[in-house]
Design the sequence.
């Protein structure tokens, strides 16, 4: 079998893509896991679809069981009657953003599955599918789904049956284990897989939020693991009791108020995360943080938890624009046997130069002094690019707010509280004006090709916050891990604007620390990235 023969129909692979696909095929011949570092704009989604096209078809038994809903039948204890995993088929591409999912759907007309809150109930339009599942009689829900009348469960059905589909990591980890085995699991933006797993298996208890939704609990006063487990278990019972109470009240149509629905969602979300922590307590080294206002529980390592993703592919492709130190990366995910590939870039570095400033090195100690001067530099750069669109990577919400408060420029579209990246991206894409995105979280999965961004500004090198207890512990154990995380995000930030061979843009890095970092870490960074520095 020649994998290149399965390249998406209607497209012609570039020389670099052909070489990478050959390397992927060779890699899978010797190991079940391939880690691919491929530059932004190199067509990673085409690699995913090529692999999917080569995979086995679904078995008739599996297709019928999922389509008929027999695969989801429960026994008297509420467990799935079918315990054994159905055999793998096809491929799933896992992403971190809705934008990436939409990109897969647009390119390859594949099935995508989003969170339940994105689907309105077709039983009652006053609620979404999450609330529908809580308040509707089980017999009615079952009939509704078996008859393929629920939009969410129809998309879930199609994702599980179709040869190629895409969903986010959280949705994938929450799918029933026995139906999601695939020939290939493809992890897009895989450098962020650790963070996705940490998020899935973490829990933050905000005392004020609990009080607002009617849950009374004593504050956690210890970080002793056994005592903390007992405290969490007691909280889980209180949350479960309140969930049952709300479900009974929500089942009365007069009580389907938005306020009560929101209350149920908050309690259900907290209960889900608490339950996950309790289930994984003995297999994780949880980091416990407590304050007057909240308590949080975060897994220190994810090497065992990563199996919640990796074990469901007969073969796994982990791909990202850059994998800094692939040995440490693989170890963090519990991967011992793998093939590493670093793909070349077809792009001319002169078409996407990176300009750096050495003037204002930002840190916790210097940011109040230097940030006003950097904002003045942003103002000058906006004047230098008056008629084109761009993006400003701020790294933190605080920097975003300070830029917003200082610059009174109608071109700027801010990621503010209550405003999503999808909101400002949609406005940016539709506007005929030279708008500029300003956000701390447009680093991954954003395709600002051609006129959508002719320039970008990186305000601060994206170091993780050491105020976070987990990050601080990992930094103290391995400072290189900490720097590698920053480098991954930095390279990703610089890759949002030039997305094709004929595309062009320029990038400005205003944090004065960048020169020293490049000197110290040059050996870790891809050659195609280093060649972009002017």
Sequence:
């Amino acid at each position: 079998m020649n994998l290149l023969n399965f390249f998406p129909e209607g497209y012609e692979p570039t020389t670099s893509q052909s070489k990478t696909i050959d390397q992927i095929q060779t890699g899978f011949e010797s190991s079940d896991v391939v880690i691919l570092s491929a530059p932004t704009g190199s067509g990673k989604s085409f690699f995913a679809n090529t692999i999917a096209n080569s995979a086995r078809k679904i078995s008739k038994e599996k297709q019928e069981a999922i389509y008929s809903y027999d695969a989801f039948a429960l026994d008297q204890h509420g467990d799935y009657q079918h315990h054994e995993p159905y055999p793998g088929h096809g491929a799933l591409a896992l992403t971190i953003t809705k934008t990436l999912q939409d990109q897969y759907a647009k390119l390859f007309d594949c099935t995508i599955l989003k969170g339940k809150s994105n689907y309105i109930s077709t039983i009652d339009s006053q609620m979404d599918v999450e609330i529908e599942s809580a308040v509707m009689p089980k017999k009615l829900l079952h009939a509704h789904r078996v008859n393929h009348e629920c939009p969410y469960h129809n998309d879930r059905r199609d994702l599980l049956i179709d040869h190629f589909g895409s969903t986010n990591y959280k949705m994938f980890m929450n799918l029933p284990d026995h139906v999601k085995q695939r020939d290939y699991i493809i992890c897009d933006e895989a450098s962020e897989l650790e963070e996705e797993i940490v998020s899935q298996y973490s829990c933050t208890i905000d005392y004020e939020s609990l009080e607002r939704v009617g849950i009374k609990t004593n504050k956690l006063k210890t970080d002793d693991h056994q005592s903390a487990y007992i405290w969490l278990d007691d909280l889980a019972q209180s949350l479960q009791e309140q969930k049952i109470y709300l479900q009974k009240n929500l089942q009365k149509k007069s009580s389907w108020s938005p306020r009560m629905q929101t209350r149920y969602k908050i309690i259900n979300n907290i209960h889900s995360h608490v339950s996950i922590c309790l289930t994984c307590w003995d297999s994780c080294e949880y980091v416990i943080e407590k304050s007057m206002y909240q308590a949080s529980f975060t897994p220190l390592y994810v090497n065992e938890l990563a199996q919640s993703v990796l074990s469901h592919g007969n073969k796994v492709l982990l791909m990202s624009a850059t994998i800094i130190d692939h040995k440490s990366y693989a170890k963090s995910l519990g991967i011992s046997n793998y093939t590493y590939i670093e793909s070349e870039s077809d792009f001319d570095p002169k078409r996407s130069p990176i300009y750096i400033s050495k003037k204002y090195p930002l840190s916790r100690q210097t940011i109040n002094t230097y940030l006003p001067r950097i904002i003045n530099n942003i103002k000058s750069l906006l004047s230098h690019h008056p008629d084109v669109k761009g993006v400003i990577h701020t790294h933190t919400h605080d920097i975003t707010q300070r830029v917003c408060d200082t610059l009174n420029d109608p071109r700027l579209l801010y990621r503010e509280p209550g405003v999503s990246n999808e909101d400002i991206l949609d406005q940016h894409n539709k506007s005929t004006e030279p708008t500029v995105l300003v956000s701390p979280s447009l680093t991954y999965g954003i395709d600002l090709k051609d006129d959508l961004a002719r320039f970008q500004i990186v305000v601060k090198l994206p170091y993780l916050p050491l105020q976070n207890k987990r990050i601080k512990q990992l930094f103290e154990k391995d400072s290189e891990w900490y720097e590698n995380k920053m480098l991954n995000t930095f390279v990703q930030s610089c890759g949002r604007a030039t997305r094709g061979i004929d595309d062009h843009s320029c990038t400005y890095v205003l944090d004065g620390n960048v020169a020293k970092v490049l000197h110290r870490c040059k050996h870790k960074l891809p050659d195609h990235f280093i060649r972009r520095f002017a």
